[in-house]
Structures are given as structure tokens and as C-alpha cells.
């Protein structure tokens, strides 16, 4: 079988273009695996895996952000039993996440605000042995960049500041020591 040089040349050019296209395609941004993000020396986003389906504890808002506070089943059961209002501590394994959004006006009911772009997700995890230096709780805060659809750990330059460990929330949460360092009350339903 005789293959012409011209044919081989064209085939080689096609292969080169195809290879470049495949490399370019593989270099396209792959969505971030948020569960791979971790605070250096601290907690990982993976420690709240499944938070999207956790039950709501309460809502909150400030002049700048709106939030929903959610908790895993261990924390929800603790809340239902009266913790922390009854003076008892949350059990190990309790996890609470606070999801903040930038507010936007509801186009159908303009006197209300609804979640706009995601701002950040903060969370706490109870493990009295692991986090003995911070009231039994580990803390993490992950800011969200809407343009790149990525999470990164907050830093000391952010508000509130986050250091490179799981004790970052203790400074703020110390004022709630009487309620096991938890600000949020369980909303009656």
C-alpha cells in the first residue's frame, strides 16, 4: 500500500491540531471541588459535607448580609432537647453551618430581600478533645468568589479574621460561652 507524503503531511497536521484542541479542552476550568478546600492547619470544607440538606436552625441578617443557619442531625437533636438554653453543652459530632448571601430585592415582593450571590460559609464542629483549647469547638470560614465560583479560606485580612487553625472563631464566640459558644437559638416551629 502506498501512502503519499502529501497525505501523511495532512494527517500529521490534523493530528497536531486535534492534540492542541484536546490540550486546550483539558485546560478549561474544571469546577472546583469545594470539599477539597481546607484552612491551613485547620478544618476542611469536607467536614460539613452534606450541609446543603441539613435542617434550618434559624435565619439572621445584618445591614450587609442575610443568612440561614443549618445544623447536622446531632446538633438538631441537641437543640430539640433544649441545648444550649438549658445550660448543657452540645455533644461531640454536632456541626453548625452559617450560609451568608448578599441580599437582593425580591422582584415579586419588593419590600423583601432574598438571597442573591453567595458570600461565604462558616461552620463549627464540636469535638471536646480535638478542640479543647477553643471551648470544644473548631471553626472555619470560607469566602466565595462568584466570578470564579470558588471557595477559599478567609484570612487575617478578612472580617472576621481567620487564622491558620481551627480556633479562629473563639475570639468572637467567647461572648457566648454561657450558651456553649453558640449564638443561634433554635427557632420555634
Describe this structure in words.
This protein is α+β, with helices and mostly antiparallel strands. It has one domain: Chalcone isomerase (3-Layer(bba) Sandwich). The protein has 3 helices and 6 strands; from the N terminus they run αββαββββα. It has a 6-stranded antiparallel β-sheet. The radius of gyration is 24 Å and the shape is globular. 27% of the residues are buried. About 11% of the residues have low confidence.
Structure summary:
The protein has 189 residues and is of the alpha+beta class.
SSE map:
Layout: H1 5-27, E1 55-61, E2 66-71, H2 73-80, E3 95-105, E4 113-126, E5 137-145, E6 150-153, H3 170-173
Antiparallel strand pairs: 1-2, 2-3, 3-4, 4-5, 5-6
The rough form would be described as: globular
Query: Structural class of the helix and strand makeup?
Result: alpha+beta
Beta-strand content bin? 25-35%
Rg to the nearest angstrom? 24 Å
Sheet bearing the most strands, described? 6 strands, antiparallel
| Average residue-wise pLDDT | 85
Distance between the termini: 81 Å
Order of helices and strands: HEEHEEEEH
CATH topology: Chalcone isomerase
Number of strands: 6
CATH architecture: 3-Layer(bba) Sandwich
Number of domains: 1
Low-confidence stretches: 7-27
Could you estimate the helical fraction of the residues in percent?
Answer: 10-25%
Give the neighbour order of strands across the main sheet: 1-2-3-4-5-6
CATH class group: Alpha Beta
In DSSP terms (H or I, runs of 4 or more residues), the helix count works out at 3
Amino acid at each position: 500500500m502506498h501512502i503519499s507524503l502529501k497525505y501523511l503531511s495532512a494527517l500529521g497536521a490534523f493530528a497536531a491540531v486535534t492534540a492542541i484542541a484536546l490540550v486546550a479542552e483539558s485546560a478549561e476550568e474544571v469546577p472546583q471541588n469545594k470539599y477539597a478546600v481546607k484552612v491551613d492547619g485547620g478544618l476542611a470544607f469536607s467536614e460539613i459535607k452534606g450541609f446543603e440538606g441539613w435542617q434550618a436552625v434559624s435565619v439572621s441578617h445584618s445591614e450587609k448580609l442575610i443568612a440561614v443557619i443549618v445544623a447536622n442531625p446531632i446538633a438538631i437533636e441537641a437543640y430539640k432537647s433544649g441545648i444550649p438554653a438549658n445550660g448543657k453543652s452540645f455533644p461531640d459530632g454536632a456541626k453548625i453551618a452559617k450560609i451568608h448571601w448578599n441580599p437582593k430585592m425580591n422582584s415579586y415582593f419588593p419590600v423583601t430581600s432574598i438571597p442573591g450571590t453567595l458570600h461565604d460559609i462558616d461552620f463549627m464542629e464540636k469535638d471536646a478533645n480535638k478542640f479543647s483549647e477553643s471551648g470544644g469547638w473548631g471553626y472555619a470560614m470560607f469566602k466565595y468568589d462568584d466570578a470564579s465560583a470558588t471557595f477559599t479560606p478567609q484570612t487575617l485580612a478578612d472580617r472576621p479574621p481567620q487564622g491558620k487553625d481551627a480556633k479562629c472563631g473563639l475570639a468572637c464566640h467567647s461572648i457566648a460561652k454561657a450558651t456553649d459558644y453558640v449564638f443561634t437559638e433554635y427557632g420555634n416551629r
